[in-house]
Amino acid sequence: MPPAELTVHTALTSWRFDPVSTVLCLVCVVSYLAAARGGRVGRGTRAAFVAGCAAWWFTANGFIAVYGDVLFWVRALGFVLLTLVAGFLLAAGRPVTVAVAHRRLRRAALRAGRSWGARWLLSPLATSMLMLVTPWLLFLTPWYSATVESAVAQRATESLLVAVGTVYFYARLQADPVPRHRHAGLSLVIATAETLGDGVLGVVLWQGWVLDAVVRQAMLRDWGPSPRTDQTVGAGILWVLGDVVGLPFLMYLFARWRADDDRSARAADVALTSPAEPTDGVATDRPWFLDDPELSERFHRR
């Protein structure tokens, strides 16, 4: 039976219990809070992680799970919540810091961070491609139809989207230890370019053909928008709402950019004002910035 017409009341009262997401969220919250008891992260950080799990659970059990089978724009809203909201909050919870502080998890976390796979996966190119390509593949390939027709595919997709968002924001925020620190200005430029990429997908869904899966979804209900309108609203959610939700992330990057520049300026001032120490009485013309640890890392000079 199709759900009743979507209204404010039905959105607040419609639920579909999903044991898979419930167990995963509970395991994540309990494990995180148990490992964070040492006080390495503050209450706000812990609250961010719990809120990320709550957003994940709500998306998989609330009205989005009920009406996502018959409305494309609801599925688009679920994508934004899982990748941009839950992913950002989980990364802001600094789970790697919590893991490294735990005696039993420290070695595994450090070993994983030093691996070639982790360095590649967390590089700007890999994380950008992961975030940009995932929605194109999800909405413009048979993958989307599979999530509508199969509960197993939908549960797996939800978990994957949360993982994609968390990995992306973990690499961009760099609030946690990362295999390689990168200047926040680079992340800000890349994030701005990614916003344009999201807009292209929104235009394609808005002006392009109506997806077959969206037409089949409309046939399951006798109320609501037409397939064309449904897909247009979903395109707007992916484009506009995605950018609005991403504003805190951009603001954080801008603040960290200024902090990185201030730290580099202080290091440069110290290097310029410190008296030169000749080596064995022989003066050297070696530029000062080659010996500055902050700048040498930035320019990859040793």
From TrEMBL:
One Gene Ontology cellular component: plasma membrane
Membrane-spanning ranges: 20-36, 48-67, 73-100, 120-140, 152-171, 183-206, 233-255
Coiled-coil segments: none
Keywords: Cell membrane, Membrane, Transmembrane, Transmembrane helix
Residue ranges, annotated region (Disordered): 270-289
Record localization: Cell membrane
Membrane-topology descriptor: Multi-pass membrane protein
Domain of life where this protein originates: Bacteria
Name under which the protein is recorded: Cytochrome c oxidase assembly protein
Organism: Gordonia phthalatica
